[in-house]
Design goal:
By secondary structure, the protein is mainly alpha-helical. The chain has 2 domains: 1-61; 97-141. 88% of the residues lie in helices and 0% in strands. It has helices spanning 3-22, 31-79, 81-140. Helix 1 runs antiparallel to helix 2 (31-79). The longest helix is centred in the C-terminal third of the chain and has 60 residues, at 81-140.
Length: 146
């Protein structure tokens, strides 16, 4: 219990004792009421003290957590992880034009291959038609037996 609370309770107990000794009853305050009030005040002071103690514990835990977070962020900054990541990102972004150019070249080659396939298909169809024509012409020739 804090020193200020103890002093106030002691002052209240002294007031109750003085009131009982003088048999005075200002504002209908009896010695019994004063004793109950003193007990209630003592109980409330103890509850407040416990709440303050719990609050101090929570604040202490919060400070420990914040120190841990701060230490972790300093460790990350000091380890060079951020600089390393930034450097890697810069290096990769410098390579992006090369990658884009390579993809464009693959696109051009794919289009050329598609055109060649179409040409090959057309040539095969033409050869097929020519073969059919030759077969028809060859069927018109008759060999004499001899």
């Amino acid at each position: 219990m804090s020193g200020a609370c103890t002093t106030e309770i002691a002052s209240f107990d002294e007031f109750a004792s003085l009131l009982a000794a003088s048999n005075a009853e200002p504002l209908s305050l009896t010695v019994g009421n004063a004793a109950r009030a003193a007990d209630e005040a003592s109980r409330l002071a103890q509850a407040a003290s416990q709440a303050a103690s719990q609050g101090c514990t929570v604040v202490g835990q919060f400070l420990v957590a914040m120190q841990s977070i701060s230490a972790g962020s300093h460790k990350i900054a000091d380890s060079g992880m951020i600089r390393s990541t930034a450097s890697g990102a810069k290096h990769e972004s410098a390579r992006m034009p090369q990658l884009s150019e390579a993809i464009a070249e693959i696109d051009r080659m794919t289009l050329q291959n598609a055109a060649r396939v179409e040409q090959s298909a057309a040539a095969a169809q033409s050869m097929n038609q020519q073969a059919e024509q030759m077969s028809t012409l060859a069927g018109e020739f008759r060999l004499q037996r001899g």
